Amino acid sequence: MHFTLSITIDTMTTSTRSWFLKTFLFVAITFSSLAANAQLSAALSYKNTHADSLSISSTYVDEQTFTAPKATKITSIFDDANDNALQKKISVSLNSSKERRQLMDYLKQLEINDNSLTANESKNKTLFKFANLFARLKLYPLAMKCFFKTLQKENQQKQEASLSDTLRDDYQQGFDLPIDSKDDSLAYVQNLQVRTEKSPRTTYENISGTFNDGKQAVAYALLFHVKQPAPGKKKVHVLANTGHTYIALIKYNTDSTYVSCSFGFYPKKDHLFSATPWFPSTSSQFKNDAGHKWDEIIGKFISKRKFDRILKLTKEYNDVDYHLSYNNCTDFSLQAANEAGISVSKTDGKWFMGHGNNPGTTGQSIIQGGFGTTDGEPVSTMFKSLNTSVTDREVKSQN
After folding, report:
1. Which region, left, alpha or beta, applies to residue 36 given φ > 0 means left and ψ of -120 to 50 means alpha?
2. Residue 3 lies in a domain
3. Is the full-model pTM beyond 0.90?
């Protein structure tokens, strides 16, 4: 009995040992196989069969990305590098309320400040382009608004200092000329007014009354226009055509409205040969030149004191005779420009039996840069625009 039990125990022990041995060998072989596969995998070139997790679009947006607005380029029908084509687009757009709103919205986008110097320089160039285009369309208040926004900050600060006397006691520093919805309707009305090139007679009372609108002013401006008898040439006359020089006055109000008046000094012929070399003196009159053509423009923002002095000069000219040699349209406009702090050199010319200031030589002087300021303001605060045909002709003549 004892012998049989001993054999059974020994047999079980041997069987158990055999089972443990087999289990150990199986585990050892499995781990060695895994290690070998891992080494082989590391030695092979990597092939990405799944997209990188960084390249997968995610709905998660971190706080910085969420709070920082992205700068997007807004495309518009007014993004046109060709000035002539763009001018036609604007001219057509002024007749459509929908497209006028699009135009004003486009200009508003150019007002938005940008921390990027390159972006601001680009906007300034675009604003200056629109200032020229609006001037060619005879929309002078909008032209000067666009120009105002191109002025550098240091020039704006100097300009604000010079404009401190333009306003009433409740004037607030840091004035602005925003482009808003009121420009939409005002541009439409003004566009209708300038369609005719005829200059109807007006009076000093009508001119000064334009600015008595009962509204508080925020800024004033003057533009000096020249229509040469031969655009881009220093000719005093072409047959009976002697050209014309005139001015435009603008008053900008605190409620974003504005009023303007373009006018010039003309002879009022007492007889057939009045205002000719044989009879240079005659009666005078003012005419509304809102739709008059021009070849050169220079403009400037001015103080209320200067604005009032120009109106006073206009009143004085209301009672004086016209004289071909020393009291003509160019004489009046040059005096008005001088009151505004603008000077133009080399404006005198000769003609049969006479000489004096005239549109031909005055316009040519502006083309050649013969203008400046008399009030200490930098020339960069002056707006200058030339008729494109005049500019092209001048470039060709220099070549």
Report:
1. alpha
2. no
3. no
Q: How far apart are CA 381 and CA 365, in angstroms?
A: 19
Q: Cα separation of 145 and 190, whole Å? A: 15
Q: Does residue 46 belong to any structural domain of this protein?
A: no
**Residue at 333 is within a domain:** yes
Q: How many domains, the chain?
A: 1
Does residue 22 lie within any of the structural domains? no
Q: What is the pLDDT along the chain (399 residues), one digit of tens a residue?
A: 444 434 344 444 555 555 555 555 555 555 444 444 433 333 334 344 433 333 333 333 333 333 434 444 455 556 655 667 777 777 666 667 777 777 777 777 777 666 555 666 778 888 888 899 889 989 999 999 999 988 854 454 454 454 444 443 333 345 688 887 777 777 777 777 777 778 999 999 999 999 999 999 999 999 999 999 999 999 999 998 999 999 999 999 999 999 999 999 999 988 989 889 999 999 999 999 999 999 999 999 999 999 999 999 999 999 899 999 999 999 999 999 999 999 999 999 999 988 999 999 999 999 999 999 999 888 989 999 998 655 455 445 544
Q: Is 49 buried (19+), middle (13-18) or exposed (0-12) by CB count in 10 A?
A: exposed
Amino acid at residue number 114: D
